[in-house]
Amino acid sequence: MFDVDKWQEIFSTISKNKMRTFLTGFSVAWGIFMLIILLGSGKGLENGVNEQFKDDATNSIWVNQGTTSMAYKGLKPGRNIQFTNEDHAILKDMPSVEHAAGRFNIWENTTISYKNQYATYDIIATHPDYAFLEKLQVKTGRYLNELDIKEFRKSVALGEVVERELFKGEPAVDKYIMVAGIPFKVVGVFTDPGGDRDLNRVYIPISTAQRVFNRGNRINQLSLTVSDVTVEQSNQMVESIRREISKRHTVHPDDKRALFIWNTLEQYKKFLSLFASIRIFIWIIGIGTLIAGIVGVSNIMVVVVKERTKEIGVRKALGATPGSVIGLILQESILITAFAGYIGLLGGVGLLEIISPYFAGGESYFKDPEVDLRVALTATGILVLAGTLAGFIPARKASAIKPIEALRDE
Amino acid sequence: MISLKNIHKSYVTGTNSLHVLKGINLEVAEGELVAIMGSSGSGKSTLLNIIGMLDTYDEGDYRLEGQLIRNMSEKRVARFRNSHIGFVFQSFNLISFKNAMENVALPLYYRNIHRKKRNQVAMELLEKMGLSEWAEHMPNELSGGQQQRIAIARALVSRPKVILADEPTGALDSQTSYEVMDLFREINQSGITILIVTHENDIAHMTGRIIRLHDGDIVTDEINGIRRKQPVLQTLTH
User: Fold this and answer.
1) Is B31 exposed, middle or buried (0-12, 13-18, 19+ CB in 10 A)?
2) How far is CA A93 from the centre of its chain?
3) What is the pLDDT of residue A410?
4) Whole-angstrom Cα Rg for chain B
5) Alpha carbon of A234 to those of A95, A252, B59: distances in Å?
6) pLDDT by residue for chain B (238 residues), tens digit each?
7) Domain that holds residue B148
8) Which end of chain A is more exposed for a tag (fewer CB within 10 A), N or C?
């Protein structure tokens, strides 16, 4: 195997038959290249969708108000549903509920200022539990707490971006800012995996906001997270939430338009199973591409042996043993497949690296296309191995060539 | 040197069996220059294959230098062939992507001789044969006569006891043919046994012995023009 002479013999054969070598190599390189691109794209799609789910808890249920579409107990359809604190209390007391929060946005005046810095941001009034739903992480200070709610404190938690833009590097905690013209004390700064959109926000206690902005006990959106449950259990919860809230608002239990309920867990699990299928699909295509590559190698090796029949006949007449003929063909095939496989690997990974930055950030469902190097190397290894096996049959055939027949001129 | 006793060979294709050699008896002594003649299908190529250990036989005894050639592994046969037999072909069969010197050195590769050493040996032989100026040329840059001389050098490089030539002048004009035959005679005079398959009478008559085959039998065997053996199937030769 490590006979220098043999390698020299093989290299001189390869260098003098460039076209043939290129064609063999190309089918292999292409197979690996396509597999890497496929695997990478699959991963990119998966990463992209995971990214979309990253900003909110994956075990959350969101309840939005709608308009009734069915007459019920003497009430006409077309009624707008309005949540109140009581709905929040009901949800909070339901079994398996971990965190429950109500929310509404302040639309009237979204100006926030600190000293002479003015800007507009989303102002959201919520319960402290909302931090778990948005997966907020406190950077400095604290998030809103139950005391803020109970005592109607004018506390505000700032998104990272808000702090950076208004305070220009100064620490914001314990400073006062004007929220819609009313002074609020900054209790903390947070980050959100959802990115900039979710960081251009400030959160204020819902009780304070109801009082200051004259909302009574109204809430516009309800959200909750459930403890470790299966998809079926969370779907059952969605049903019981619908039942409870519908009952309270005198809505027909089958009126789907009065309440819009989004079950993230169910959607998430749906995506997970979608990815499982995509992955299987990609592997089927990938393996198909590999097989095509292997068949290509085998095909070309058959042609090579045919093309070299005379030469092999001469070699045998000059004293080449069958083993050395097999070795010659096989080693050439292994060398070409291994080298071409490596080129394909390099090309595929390289292309993924090049396109990756173009998909970074943004709202696209494609992010960080990447490929597990172990998988890629295994695939290359398998292809080389299969290429060897594919080369073995023609090589055996070559070793059985009868010199005089091969050298006949007819 | 070469001893064939009652050699039979049949090729079986499907249900048909073609009896190609029908009991060949032949003795070739060391240092002989022999021509084997016969029309196509007479079995002369098959005979050459068997002598060259490129094909097996069904029946009989074939001894090369007293060594019985039968049931040998392919690997041993290859070794034996490499050390005992040199081949020369009608269409030269130089390897197209190797230059003249590398072609000549190839048999030594199969004897596990190091590259430098074998190229040196090949070069020396080419010089001795007056072919050194073509050493770096590729086969397609050489004339037929030059190619055949390179091919003969290749057959000689491993210092074989026997050279088997299958129609070595078949692709050459008569002038070149005679030059090649002169070369064979010169080599023969150095003590190497040479068997030449040919269908050209003038070429055959430049050898010391002419064996004629017909339908798998030796019909005549003349040494220096003297018929040594009566044809078995004389009636068929007319």
Assistant:
1) middle
2) 34
3) 45
4) 18
5) 11, 22, 86
6) 899 999 999 988 888 888 989 999 999 999 999 999 988 888 888 898 899 888 889 999 999 988 888 888 888 888 888 999 999 988 888 988 888 999 999 999 888 888 889 999 999 999 998 899 999 999 999 999 999 999 999 999 989 999 999 889 988 998 999 999 999 999 999 999 999 998 888 999 999 899 999 988 998 888 876 665 544 444 444 4
7) 32-56+72-230
8) C
Q: Contact A13/B166, CB-based, under 8 Å?
A: no
pLDDT at B163: 94
Question: In this predicted structure, what is the pLDDT of residue B36?
Answer: 93
Residue in A4, A313, A319 nearest the CB of B79: A319
Winning range, highest mean pLDDT, from A150-159, A260-269, A335-344: A150-159
Residue B202 lies in a domain: yes
Which two three-digit tokens encode residue B22?
A: 């029908």
Q: What pLDDT, in 10s, does the model give residues B197-216?
A: 988 889 999 998 999 999 88
Q: Quick check: B98 contacting A, CB < 8 Å? A: yes
A396 CB near a chain B CB, below 8 Å? no
**Residue A228 contacts B where some CB pair is shorter than 8 Å:** no
CB contact under 8 A, B75 and A322: yes
pLDDT for residue A1 is more than 50 = no
Lateral strand order in the sheet of B226-229: B85-89, B162-166, B193-197, B33-37, B209-214, B217-223, B226-229
pLDDT of residue A361: 59
Residue A315 touches chain B, beta carbons under 8 Å: yes
- Interface membership of A354 toward B (CB under 8 Å): no
End-to-end CA distance of chain A: 36
Q: What pLDDT shows up at residue A196?
A: 77
Q: How far is A321 from chain B (nearest CA, A)?
A: 5
Q: A350 with A33: CB under 8 angstroms?
A: no
Instruction: Examine residue B20 and state whether it is found in any structural domain, yes or no.
Output: no
The tally of domains found in chain B comes to 1
Minimal Cα distance from B105: which residue of A?
A318
| Pairing assessment for the beta strands B16-28 and B2-13 based on DSSP bridges | antiparallel
Taking the alpha carbons at both ends of chain B, their separation in whole angstroms is 32
- A313 CB neighbours in chain B (<8 A) are 93
Instruction: Specify if B238 maps to a domain.
Output: no
| Amino acid, res. A114 | Y
Mutate to test the interface with A, among B93, B104, B154, B161 (most CBs of A within 10 A): B93
What are the residue boundaries of the structural domains of chain A, listed by start? 4-53+269-408, 67-257
| Model confidence pTM above 0.90 | no
CATH number of the domain that B96 lies in? Answer: 3.40.50.300
Distance of alpha carbon A180 from alpha carbon A212, whole angstroms: 10
List, in sequence order, every residue forming a beta bridge with B17; answer none if it has no partner: B12
Specify if B95 maps to a domain. Answer: yes
User: Residue A183, exposed/middle/buried by CB under 10 A (0-12, 13-18, 19+)?
Assistant: exposed
Joined together, the tokens standing for residue A88 give 């929040």
